[in-house]
Amino acid sequence: MNGGLVVISGCSGGGKSSLLAELKARGHRVVEEPGRRIIAEETAVGGSALPWCDLAAFLRRAIAMAIADHAAAAKNTGWTFFDRGLIDAAAALQALTGDDVLGPLAAAHRYHPRMFMAPPWPEIYVADDGRRHGFDEAVAEYDRLSAAYPALGYDVVPLPKLPTAARADFVQGALAESKGPDITERR
Questions:
Q1: Are strands 155-158 and 114-118 parallel, antiparallel or unpaired?
Q2: CA separation for the pair 121, 30 (Å, rounded)
Q3: Mean pLDDT for the chain?
Q4: Each residue's pLDDT tens digit, 122-151
Q5: Could you write out the DSSP letters of every residue in 94-117?
Q6: Sequence-separated (6 or more) residues with CB below 8 Å from residue 162
Q7: 3-state class of 76 per DSSP?
Q8: What is the pLDDT of residues 70-85, one digit of tens each?
Q9: What pLDDT was estimated at residue 52?
Q10: Which of 135, 159, 133, 163 is nearest to 146 (CA)?
Q11: What mean pLDDT do residues 47-57 have?
């Protein structure tokens, strides 16, 4: 396990991308959400592996992308922050199909034991071209992930509803208390 690979997950529209942009501005590596990248790629080529067309194909692509992201980031030193990742996609595929994919994939591709969970935050939730589901579906996803991560042995740290810079300070402080690279270590 690479101790510097940190997942930021949780409710869609909960401020994860803004937090990751702040962490990147502070000099940390950031891996963008697989789902957003797949939607952009599929839309550009007229593909159907989209959550609103073929959810299973979309999730399988997200799993493959998350595994590749994990392998590439494992070579880094310092912290690498993931906007979602393998567990998110595998938990969704398992919920959709009933296939036992989450446990084996999560065991083979571990992240830092402390991860951060963005709670539902209706005041900032916004649907867009890549997020077509409503707030209720986002909360259901949050509930599924809130159960999956601790069941896999992760220390789930809820993100406070604070301005982005304060959230980044919170993440850095929580990681400074945990095992892993020195939080001041940069690229």
A1: parallel
A2: 22
A3: 88
A4: 666 566 565 556 667 877 888 999 999 999
A5: HHHH----HHHHHHHS---SEEEE
A6: 170
A7: coil
A8: 999 999 889 999 999 8
A9: 85
A10: 159
A11: 92
- The CA-to-CA distance between both ends of the chain, in Å, stands at 19
Measured CA to CA, the distance from residue 73 to residue 82 in angstroms comes to 10
Q: What's the chain's length in residues?
A: 187
> pTM to 2 decimals?
0.88
* Per-residue burial over 111-139, b = 16 or more CB atoms within 10 Å of its CB, e = otherwise: bbebbbbbebbeeebeeeebbeeebeebb
Decide: residue 176, CB within 10 A, 0-12 exposed, 13-18 middle, 19+ buried: exposed
Structure tokens at 144: 């599924």
